[in-house]
Design a protein that fits this description.
Arc Repressor Mutant, subunit A; 2 domains; two-stranded antiparallel sheet; 14 helices
Length: 302
């Protein structure tokens, strides 16, 4: 992998003398920050460098690619091979060790920074559109794989408690398809996807689109790649792509969606929770009294 990255950088350096000044700026940026550019759309990279999108497209062709999409796919292949989970953790540990202060304070400061960035990266109109999709759906299907499966399970639990028929999809392969085949026109899909364009993620989005189901994507870097497949993209930046990633931002966005749904239908949401409490009492299952249940201490909240 190191050899492939070195070959890429060497190729850029060999092309430098033959590039325009604007193209040389792009090459210089990629030599230093190719990992940050890996998931950018041509327009995003152009904006970052204060250039035209056409200049970025011409640059990709000038260094030997058929176009910008092919160059970006190559960058993603380099990234996925180099920045393994172990490599990202090692980088974050080095950052923590090289700065002063207690690790707890430093990590909390990191999370606050990411949350602050998220407040500026998500358009409120896009968020409201996502809420409308959730409210108008007959059923909700929530997909997440790997670490983000916990987000899908949380969404299923809390939306179901609000009286919405919600199905989580955290399986892979055939087991995922067994749930996906239940999807029907009028349903909606909420997808969590980060960095990797997994085959399961694409299958969920493609099948939803084929049926005419609306979809929401919570992601950090995959928006430019998958935007044509979804109705709404909610950007959940989790830190630099080459370092340890947090789920705090996407979980906060998810909690905001759930609470917005409850606010839009307060009577139905509270009635659903009341029914649940009544059923617990009727059937003597997990009845909570002063923080205690038959199974011991509980924290039982919607």
């Amino acid at each position: 992998m190191a050899e492939e990255l070195n070959d890429f950088r060497q190729g850029l350096e060999e092309h430098l003398p033959h590039l325009t000044k604007s193209q040389q700026r792009i090459a210089s940026y990629l030599l230093v920050s190719y990992d940050e550019a890996t998931f950018m759309a041509a327009a995003d990279l152009a904006e970052r460098l204060d250039l035209s999108e056409a200049t970025v497209v011409r640059f990709a062709k000038a260094i030997g690619y058929d176009g910008f999409p092919q160059m970006r796919r190559h960058l993603q292949e380099l990234y996925l091979t180099r920045f393994t989970p172990g490599a990202r953790l090692q980088r974050k540990l080095s950052e923590l060790a090289s700065s002063q202060g207690h690790v707890l304070a430093k990590v909390l400061d990191m999370e606050v920074q990411y949350l602050t960035e998220a407040s500026h990266s998500i358009d409120t109109a896009d968020f409201d559109h996502a809420v409308d999709i959730l409210l108008s759906a007959q059923r909700l299907f929530v997909f997440g794989s790997g670490p983000s499966s916990s987000l899908a399970e949380l969404a299923e639990l809390r939306l179901r408690r609000l009286g919405l028929l919600t199905i989580s999809m955290t399986e892979s392969g055939r087991h995922l398809l067994e749930k996906l085949q239940l999807l029907q026109k009028g349903d909606a899909v909420l997808v969590d996807g980060f960095h990797h364009v997994r085959a399961e993620l694409v299958a969920v989005l493609d099948h939803a689109r084929a049926l005419g189901c609306r979809s929401i994507l919570i992601t950090d870097t995959l928006g430019p790649i998958l935007q044509s497949k979804v109705d709404v993209v909610l950007a959940a930046r989790r830190g630099p792509v080459s370092t340890f990633h947090s789920l705090t931002v996407p979980m906060s966005i998810l909690n905001a969606l759930i609470l917005a749904v409850a606010m839009a239908r307060p009577n139905e949401s509270l009635a659903a929770l009341d029914r649940l409490d009544q059923m617990r009492a009727t059937y003597n299952l997990d009845v909570t009294v002063k923080g205690l249940s038959k199974r011991g201490l509980t924290e039982d909240c919607p």
